[in-house]
Amino acid sequence: MKSFILEEGRVVQLEISDITEQEVDVIVNAANGYLRHGGGVAGALVRAGGKEIQLESDAYVRENGPLEIGEVAVTGAGSLHAKKIIHVFGPQYGELNLEEKLYSSFGHVLKKAAEMEAVTLATPAISTGIFGVPVSICANQFLRAVGDHLSENASTSLKLIKM
Fold this sequence. Notes:
It contains four helices and seven strands. By secondary structure, the chain is of the alpha/beta class. The protein has a seven-stranded mixed sheet with strand order 1-2-7-6-3-5-4, with helices on both faces. The longest helix has 18 residues, at 98-115.
């Protein structure tokens, strides 16, 4: 694990761990636009947290339609140790403006978490699984989005942000 201690007691951590075991306010899910949680991080969250996560996701899509790239949706976290899940539809490798779309995806997650007054958040490396984005690109955009969020939102509730 690598930790970065920032101003105001904020901490950013990069670690290899099981996201389903994170004890945080918000877990981020690397979702597809239809919030079908069959494999990868999404499938693991449903297997660990229960089918109610998928049922809430299905209801969200019925009511609001599928997510566009970078958009987020919030559901309960079932029996996970988190309070909520923020689902984000990240870009696929090879798309135009990949880095900006990934940056925007992380930005929307951070904004939503702050709106929810979350203090702790854990996110996977968005789009690095089946969507094929290299981890280095993801990490760079994550750190850029976190830095910008914290500098533009001095009073944000977020104190611990983990990837």
